[in-house]
Design a protein that fits this description.
The protein is mostly helical. The chain contains 16 helices and 5 strands. The chain has a 3-stranded mixed beta sheet with strand order 3-4-5. Strand 1 and strand 2 form a beta hairpin.
């Protein structure tokens, strides 16, 4: 039996391959951060201070900052707080015990505990604590100030350079989770509290934020839907109510329009046919008098004709919106997609899958 190299790779933790462009970007970022930090420190301290211009753990901080800037371990507070707090721990134990052999283990252990309590866990912080113990006479002589200069200043400079570099190359540092759909309230199957509860069951720190997990789960849901049902776009489902309203119509006119159309929601359009809002029959019943424009929902769920309908699933099933207004790039009203339309599309897609004809084109309306 041959060795299963794929299974062996998973067991030893071989990381996914990176693109050549990403490798080059990360390497350039690390070189930029360390070079500029070192140059600034040399201009500040000169060569006669006896203090190191760069402490070695900054190399590890640079790896996190420029190679995995989305990691919670690479955020500004983690880098600055983690390195400084850890340095203080190392200085404390070295000053108290005086023997690196005993101070080293206590410095690293207390650094881990202190960073965890301060919510700034940063792996290079352990190296900062160790540096303050075994760094030599210059480090010991500097005393408590070593945590600020050079450790704190190194960390601040590196984070500042990381902000500049990542803003130019990626545009997302400090990391913020990308919203899958801007108007999505809560996904249908779970909510933020569910994610927090599951994360709390893990004794180990997962190197991913709750927001990123939320985005990831929802993208997986959308991909699974497309795999099962194909890509169905809003333009394939949308339809136009025969009756529309104007913002200046009275509520009496709105009641008549609902009676004639038999719909539960109607678009409110300006004279040029642009969507101004949506009026649901429940809103009309709550406010019997006045103009439509004063009662309508001015922030309805909107989508473009090319939007895949799976992106509307968490919105229209989240309990806030029940219909999506389909508009063009210029805001021109094009049609409506309702919860019933989505259910119909799901049912037809399931029938096609069960019949073994997922590639067949079924009428969606």
């Amino acid at each position: 039996m041959g060795l299963d190299w794929a299974a062996f790779g998973r067991w030893i933790g071989v990381q996914p391959a990176s693109s050549s462009g990403r490798i080059l970007t990360c390497a350039l970022g690390g070189a930029f951060g360390i070079l500029v930090t070192g140059v600034v420190m040399r201009m500040w301290l000169g060569d006669s201070s006896g203090l190191p211009l760069l402490v070695a753990p900054m190399g590890a901080s640079a790896v996190l900052l420029f190679a995995v800037p989305a990691s919670p371990l690479a955020q500004p507070w983690a880098i600055i707080g983690g390195n400084v707090v850890s340095a203080l721990c190392g200085i404390f134990w070295m000053r108290w015990l005086g023997d690196p052999a005993y101070a080293a283990c206590l410095a690293v252990a207390s650094a881990i505990a202190a960073m965890s309590l301060a919510r700034c866990l940063h792996p290079p912080g352990g190296a900062c604590a160790l540096t303050c113990v075994i760094g030599g006479k210059a480090v010991v002589a500097a005393g408590w100030s070593f945590a600020l200069l050079p450790v704190g200043v190194n960390s601040l400079l590196l984070v500042g350079l990381g902000l500049l570099f990542n803003a130019g190359m990626r545009g997302n540092y400090p990391h913020r989770a990308t919203q899958f759909v801007a108007q999505t309230p809560e996904p249908a199957g779970y909510n933020a509290a569910d994610i927090e509860a599951v994360l709390a069951q893990y004794e180990d720190l997962l190197d991913v934020s709750r927001e990123d997990l939320d985005t990831l789960f929802r993208q997986v849901e959308g991909r699974a839907f497309r795999r099962l049902h194909g890509v169905i776009r809003c333009q394939q489902l949308m339809w136009q109510p025969t009756v529309t309203l104007s913002p200046h119509d009275s509520m009496e006119q709105a009641r008549h329009a609902f009676s004639v159309s038999g719909q539960h929601v109607l678009p409110v359009l300006d004279d040029a046919g642009h969507l101004e809002g949506m009026l649901a029959i429940g809103q009309m019943l709550l406010v019997p008098d006045g103009e439509v424009g004063a009662v309508m929902d001015r922030s309805p769920c909107m989508a473009s004709p090319d939007t895949p309908v799976d992106e509307l699933l968490p919105i229209l099933s989240g309990g806030v919106y029940h219909d999506a207004a389909i508009v063009g790039d210029d805001g021109q009203w094009l049609g409506l997609v309702t919860q019933s339309d989505l259910l119909s599309a799901l049912w037809r897609g399931q029938v096609a899958a069960d019949a073994g004809s997922a590639g067949a084109s079924l009428p969606l309306r």
